[in-house]
Specification:
- By secondary structure, the chain is mainly beta.
- The protein has 2 domains: 19-99, Immunoglobulin-like; 201-754, Beta Barrel (Maltoporin, Chain A), CATH 2.40.170.
- It has 6 helices and 42 strands.
- The protein has a 22-stranded antiparallel β-barrel. Strands 11-17-18-15-16 form a 5-stranded mixed β-sheet.
- A hairpin with a 2-residue loop joins strand 22 and strand 23.
- The longest helix is centred in the first third of the chain and has 12 residues, at 2-13.
């Protein structure tokens, strides 16, 4: 605490010295007219403004060093400019072009906060408007619209992301840079997230252990909250969604303000869905889910520092489509009655940034408390079968030093301490345990003549897992009375590892670049894989205390090209995984006949890639054509195929846009088609899956009533009401098809309280 106080005083003392500012004028490139209301924003500093009636802007109290300024305006191409604040003031006038194909974005999930062209790893993004337009009933399902990303699902409410064939403990899901911890070892345990208050989602496909540590072998998904209100403003938005297939209802309300750098925000939402209908008209029993969420944040923006605190709470009740529930649950009900997960999650994040000339420091602290209950029925011995609580206290300290315009480095450390506690429920899938994790890393970036960007880094990690002596059935033996026939568990082990990466971005021209990456990532086996012992769903799952670190070596290559009317991305990867950890059935059964599954590991390889093409042909400015192809193969070195590998798929999207139709603005009509190839390479304990085709349609516009704007989106998913199985649906084994046709409506109402 004393260290934090010292840092705070030092950071504020710098405010007494040199003043740095940036100003300028924004005009239309074609007409030369001034643009009023252009958003001028510096993401790293959380500071921004808008252009006045003369198209002018001014931002002061900026720290010395390099910053990236984003200029955005509806209907125009977003511009990101690097500015070096060495002398004050800096004058930057810009001309903006009409939006054709989306330009570079500023992303923060990579090694450095930078534009896409400076990243040695391609980062896919999904913005807030795309989330609003999606006809998917959950945020996790919306992620699967990204090439190379799929989901393992047990219905619309329970889904786990898959990135290039890796899932569960092989990827990290971040909330504003903080890894979420809510028993993600199983496909039955979804991340407790929604799109309320989210500015965008950033997705790294490929190893990211160097930055984020164990668990980022396959990639990272990071939810980025919306930015604070501009100084002197109080604004908000209300949203409503209806999903026809599930009679789903979703509503949210958010308000935020900023008074001279002191900002705040409040966001709340509620979601409720009935059981979904399959393409054949049958009801998928007990796939209903209900969710409430609340989020509040506050912070302070100063010249030499920014401080932000976020508190989030979510409560989820997720129905489980398991055979015991089918005869018990009623139809056309929202309320969770029998066989459901009752989940509560609390998350507190403290984000602090300090600017000392060429040195910039980030200090993130977080505490997460997740309680998981499994509710049975009146036919089970007790109503609450599982009651576990996972508490995680984590930190991340990172310092970035920029020697000059060409060379900068990062030094950092991060870690967490974690405790799993079981309460009185009889089933203890995981034992009581304490986990400690810490790591240190360094990363350097060098720009060679503005043509080649080179990056290289190294990381050391250490983890200790301690499971005190206890009975696997969950009974306490604090009195020392342990019977000879009791089935006991006791475990303690430490894991350490070095991981490294080297990458390069080669700018062939302003419109073409090549990305090359070689990374060795790792993850240590988690608590479930080492010690799990008990019924999980309809099977008995058993850990393996002989598991060792899972290490991989992946090669990635990517090509990007863009013109005024075209954008093309081609990427390929080869991922050699040593000691790949997975869950597989054994030849044994329990006394009651349940199949026993156990974790094991074997050398494996995954390879494939994606092709993405976006065409906005001239002079057909109202037409956008987007297509993608994703290919993935995952197999053991012995020749057997790995489980939970998605099918190859081909996607085509057509969008027709019109800036203005009478009183309507930014109107669009879109058609999306997906063809999933047959999965004829299942693992030895999976079944093949037939090919399928689905089509979606969407329409949206902005309506202005008096001075109030309404954003309306109407969509129909699975228009043809096809009956199909997705290979990654865990309901396939029960003969339950994926969701049928759904007519969906979304309305967003932005409003301002004070300007």
């Amino acid at each position: 605490m004393r260290i934090l106080i010292v840092i705070w005083f030092i950071s504020n003392s710098f405010c007494l010295y040199s003043q740095y500012s940036i100003s300028g004028k924004i005009t239309d490139h074609s007409t030369g007219e001034t643009l009023i209301g252009v958003n001028v924003y510096i993401p790293e500093l959380l500071k921004g403004t808008t252009t006045n009636k003369n198209g002018e802007y001014f931002i002061n109290d900026l720290p010395k060093g390099e910053i990236i300024v984003r200029f955005s305006y509806i209907g125009y191409k977003t511009i990101n400019k690097k500015v070096s604040l060495k002398n004050s003031p800096v004058k930057l006038n810009l001309q903006m072009d009409f939006l054709v194909v989306e330009g570079q974005e500023i992303v923060i999930s990579g090694n450095f906060t930078s534009t896409q062209h400076d990243n040695t790893v391609k980062i896919n993004t999904i913005n807030a408007r795309q989330l609003e337009q999606s006809g998917s009933p959950s945020l996790i399902q919306t992620l699967a619209e990204t090439p190379g990303v799929d989901i393992i699902s047990k219905g619309p409410g329970i889904g786990s992301p898959v990135i290039r064939g890796l899932s569960l403990s092989n990827i990290l899901f971040l909330n504003n840079g903080i890894p979420l911890n809510n028993y993600q070892f199983s496909e039955n345990h979804p991340y407790l997230v929604d799109e309320f208050g989210v500015k965008r989602v950033e997705i790294i496909k490929g190893p990211a252990s160097l930055i984020y540590g164990s668990g980022a072998v396959g990639g990272v998904i990071n939810l980025i909250d919306e930015e604070p209100a501009l100084i002197g403003k109080i604004e908000g938005k209300a949203g409503f969604k209806y999903f026809g297939n599930t009679n789903g209802l979703s509503g949210n309300l958010g308000v935020k303000g900023n008074n001279k750098g002191f900002f705040w925000g409040v966001q709340g939402g509620i979601t409720s869905h009935m059981d979904y209908k399959q393409g054949n008209g049958d009801i998928a029993r007990n796939t209903r889910f209900n969710r409430t969420s609340f989020k509040i944040n506050t912070g302070l923006i100063r010249k030499k520092a920014t401080y932000k605190i976020i508190y989030q709470q979510s409560k989820d009740k997720l129905g489980l489509a398991v055979e015991p529930a089918f005869s018990l649950t009623s139809v056309n009900e929202r309320k969770n009655e029998d066989w459901f997960q009752d989940l509560t999650d609390h998350l507190i994040i403290s984000q602090n940034k300090f600017f000392f000339g060429k040195l910039r420091m980030d200090l993130h602290l977080a505490y997460q408390l997740n309680q998981r209950k499994l509710i049975g029925s009146e036919l089970t011995p007790v109503n609450t079968l599982v009651d576990m609580q996972l508490s995680t206290l984590s930190f991340r300290l990172k310092g970035a030093y920029q020697f000059n315009d060409k060379f900068k480095i990062i030094l950092g450390t991060q870690g967490f301490t974690q405790n799993n506690t079981n309460f009185d429920a009889p089933d203890r899938i995981l034992p009581d345990a304490n986990i400690f994790d810490i790591s240190f890393y360094s990363l350097a970036q060098y720009h060679l003549q503005n043509i080649i960007v080179l990056e290289a880094g190294l990381r050391y990690s250490f983890k200790n897992i301690y499971v005190p002596l206890q009975e696997v059935s969950g009974h306490s033996h604090d009195d020392g009375d342990i019977g000879e026939d009791d089935d006991m568990i006791n475990y303690e082990n430490s894991f350490s590892n070095l991981s490294a990466s080297v990458g390069a971005t080669i700018n062939l021209s302003e419109m073409m670049l090549i990305r090359l990456n070689l990374a060795s990532a790792y993850r240590s086996p988690n608590l479930a894989e080492l010690t799990q012992h008990g019924m999980h769903g309809t099977r008995f799952e058993l850990g393996n205390q002989n598991l060792t670190n899972q290490q991989n070596l992946e090669v990635d290559i990517g090509f990007h090209m863009h013109t005024r009317h075209t954008s093309l991305d081609i990427s390929g990867f080869y991922n050699n995984v040593y000691n790949y950890i997975f869950l597989a059935p054994t030849n044994d059964t329990t006394e009651d006949g349940s199949k026993i599954y156990q974790y094991s590991q074997t050398p494996s390889v995954l390879y494939g890639g994606e092709i993405m093409l976006h065409v906005h042909p001239h002079p057909l400015h109202w037409l956008h054509i987007e297509s993608s192809y994703s290919y993935i193969i995952g197999k053991e070195k012995s020749g057997d195929f790995l489980p939970l590998i998605p099918t190859n798929n081909l996607k085509l999207g057509l969008m027709f846009t019109k800036d203005k139709i009478k009183s309507l603005k930014n109107t669009y009509l879109k058609l999306d088609f997906k063809y999933a190839f047959a999965q004829n390479n299942p693992s030895v304990f999976e079944t093949p899956t037939d090919e399928y085709f689905i089509a979606d349609i969407g329409f949206g516009t902005e309506i202005k009533i008096n001075n109030q704007i309404l954003l309306v989106d109407l969509s129909i998913s699975n228009i043809l009401n096809n009956t199909y199985f997705d290979h990654l649906s865990t309901l396939k084994d029960l003969g339950i098809y994926n969701m049928g046709r759904s007519v969906n409506l979304a309305v967003k109402i932005p409003f301002g309280i004070k300007n």
